[in-house]
Amino acid sequence: MNSSTHARSYAKVVENGVQAVEEVNRLRSSGYLSENIFVLAHDDDRTERIADTANASEIGIKEEGMFDALANLFRLKGDELRAKITSLGFTEAEAQFYEKELDFGKVLVIAKPA
């Protein structure tokens, strides 16, 4: 059995967009592909700006699946963020922890194995 099949996604909470860009660059230089590195902030516009600056990805339909992506249109923001985080392989408890950090203005950088 291939061990990378069960490799977990990596996540790190950082204080701001500058640190997020630095973390994305560090992950890229350690071998992660840009399309497997994601940034997430509480505000969609901030997420987009950081992702563009860092040349990282936003969590979208490919990661969430069509049903969850459509469901997010009707979810409260916290529920939407937790759904995006769990779509990358984290538990509900982990997603709750990370979502609370986003509430405090922090940024989440996630890298998933190829």
From TrEMBL:
Domain called General stress protein 17M-like: residue spans: 11-105
InterPro entries recorded: GSP17M-like_dom
Superkingdom of the source species: Bacteria
Any Pfam family: YflT
Protein name per the record: General stress protein 17M
Gene: yflT
